[in-house]
Design goal:
The structure holds 2 protein chains of 2 kinds. Chain A has a single domain (20-96), classed as Immunoglobulins (Immunoglobulin-like, Sandwich). Chain A is built from no helices and 8 strands. Chain A has strands at residues 20-28, 31-32, 36-40, 46-51, 57-62, 65-73, 76-84, 91-96. In chain A, a hairpin with a 2-residue loop joins strand 1 (20-28) and strand 2 (31-32). Chain B is 31% helix and 12% strand. Chain B has helices at 3-6, 10-15, 33-36, 62-71, 85-100, 112-118, 148-154, 166-170, 211-220, 238-249, 261-265; strands at residues 7-8, 22-26, 43-44, 79-83, 106-109, 159-162, 194-195, 229-232, 255-258. Chain B starts with a helix and ends in a 12-residue tail after the last helix. In chain B, 44% of the residues are buried. Classes of the chains: A mainly beta, B alpha/beta.
């Protein structure tokens, strides 16, 4: 894979007006990383988890509010706090590990 | 049952990759994950195409299960080791199927595909060839399956465990947050159900917590395990994992999985629903 694509996956077919999308990519030294991203709610409780794509990207359909994203990759765990809102543009998160 | 009868670790699987009497089976929510790569010599079971009736909502019947396992080259005396993504949600669901149809020698790879990947262990694209067998399943064991009427009868009387995330339990979300949220059923949970998310059973790497930690979890949540228990989620796969914890790891005989789960219950006319925490 040659280089990570900036931002989360393509939004074609996603109803961004109705969904609260949190998405992004996980990279190491600018290259996509194969691993997992967990979505934790405000109390730290697990809500969902996805594997990253071949281009290091991930996407969640959440609800407005505060969330923690936790990237799990071989040898590293990295947390990012985000605030998501509904409608319009997705919350984009770039996670470097 | 005990942990050693239910789980194998990655080192055990690694040591048995070429053992002809051990069949490693990948079962993923993302049914295309296997095509990308998988544990060497693992075969795939597709939870949508292989395990569901093609027309009505139900799982495959006894003859269908026999045909499936025969086609996959799984014999009655083989040790089946299941693993998958999503912290073994769908592998646990398949484990429950194997038990429903009486395959006693079935194990789960602790941590599933995620642990294997985080350990940077080998994954390959080559699909193994296994000679077809003549598998014979037992009659379905309904003692581990709950139906909607069982759930309604259990309200306020027996243990109902909703294993979905807190936001799904309270009605803020209708599906796990990796899926689009637009759904036909009503949000909420079955009255008197306790919300003990499946994730509390597992570590971040997908392996199960220790038996002591698991026992403590259910005691701390006030679950009286001497009563019958029904676990449910959205479509019955996450609750299969909780069923596996209670029935198989903690050896509780009176636990059922409600595979109709919220997609059925939340669509029923006239049944009680609670919102909030």
């Amino acid at each position: 894979m040659c280089g990570a694509k900036a931002g989360g996956p393509d939004l074609e077919g996603i109803d961004v007006a109705k969904e609260t999308v949190i998405q992004g990519s996980v990279t190491r030294d600018g290259e996509p990383v194969n691993g997992y991203v967990r979505l934790l709610d405000e109390s730290g409780e697990f809500t969902a988890e996805v594997p990253t794509s071949a281009t290091g990207q991930f996407r969640f359909f959440a609800r407005p509010g505060k969330w923690t994203l936790r990237a799990l990759v071989p040898g590293a765990t990295v947390d990012r706090q985000v605030v998501a809102s509904q409608g319009g543009s997705p919350t984009e998160v770039a996670i470097a590990v | 049952m005990s942990r050693a009868d239910v789980l194998v670790d990655a080192d055990w699987v690694q040591a048995h990759l070429d053992d002809p009497k051990v069949v490693v089976v990948e079962v993923d929510e993302d049914t295309t994950a296997y095509e990308k790569n998988h544990i060497r010599n693992a075969v795939r079971i597709d939870w949508k195409q292989d395990l569901q009736d093609p027309v009505r909502r139900d799982f495959v019947d006894q003859a269908g299960f026999e045909a499936l396992l025969s086609r996959k080259g799984i014999g009655n005396d083989d040790t089946v080791v299941l693993y998958g993504g999503n912290n073994n949600w769908f592998a646990s669901y398949a484990y429950w199927y194997f038990k429903l149809y009486g395959h006693s020698n079935v194990r789960l790879l602790d941590g599933g595909r995620k642990k294997w990947e985080l350990d940077s262990r080998e994954l390959v694209a080559a699909v193994p060839e296994r000679a077809a067998t003549e598998y014979r399943a037992k009659a379905v064991d309904t003692s581990i399956r709950a139906y909607r009427d069982d759930v309604l009868a259990a309200i306020g009387k027996l243990n109902l465990i909703d294993v979905r995330s807190p936001d799904e339990f309270s009605g803020k979300l209708l599906a796990p947050a990796h899926l689009p949220q637009e759904q036909s059923q009503r949000p909420g949970h079955v009255p008197s159900a306790r919300n003990i998310p499946w994730a509390k059973n597992a570590n971040d790497d997908g392996t199960f917590k220790s038996d002591d930690e698991l026992r403590e979890l259910y005691q701390a949540e006030g679950v009286d395990l001497s009563k019958d228990t029904i676990a449910y989620c959205r479509i019955g796969e996450r609750s299969a994992l909780t069923w596996l914890v209670l029935h198989e790891l903690l050896d509780q005989p009176n636990v059922k999985n409600y595979d109709g789960s919220w997609t059925e219950y939340g669509s029923l006319v006239g049944v009680p629903i609670e919102l909030g925490n």
